[in-house]
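I have been asked to look over a protein record a colleague put together. Thanks in advance; the entry in question is below.
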Amino acid sequence: MAMAVAHLLPQLSAEGNGASRNRMAILLILQLFLLTVLCSITDSALGVDGAASFIFTNACKHAVWVGALHGASSPPLARSGFYLAPSATSSMDAPSSGTWSGTLWARTGCVADPATGRFSCATADCGTGDVACQGRGPAPPVSLVEVTLAAPGSGRPDFYDVSLVDGFNVPVRVAPSGGGGDCRPAACAGDVNAVCPGDLRVVASSGGGVVACKSACIAYGSARYCCTGQYGTPAMCGPTNYSQVFKSACPSAYSYAYDDATSTFTCSGPSSYDVTFCPAN
């Protein structure tokens, strides 16, 4: 950018030395300077390599343990699990090249066994015995954030959603920042546990309240609820009384496998994705 300014100044001087020429030169330099600043800000937001980042915020009154699982053809994130205290924020960068897909979620009620040191969670446990999920996904029921990031610089949009297909454990919202296009938040901000049908409830082992809500597919495993077999197409698998409970509480989240029309979101080139657990409803 500095070289471009240096080449332009002799040309402007040759055209005239009047006040108007000087003003033009000054304006051009200011425009180029502002462009440089804007480019610098954009590069800083995206990172040097243009990769987006995930910013996690715990707005719950209790601690959560974030889990992250990469898709089969995607590299892992820097951390596959970590503790997030109430009101705390933490971030991770997405990989800097290629398409990346994966799922993000919150685990609750996690403890380490005092005798063995084995780590486990009351909901969404990934079964590794450790805070890190190490390439393993969560046990349902779980509220999932699903993300597919386009390769940086490809010009293609990202896709993202909140899915309750495997049930619900924690309210969650994912919101892109700095992108172009639709870029609306996807969320399940309502407390599905409070309206969970009796046969789908997961109650705390200590005898407390409802800590999670199974989907009908997880609870019963039938083709009708899981959209498999003869129900394996959008035409054959529609909403049920159970899925409508989830949809009423969380209108923009997937309530069953083919709930695409109101639940898939896109955004082009966002600098970050804000993932908030227990967002304001």
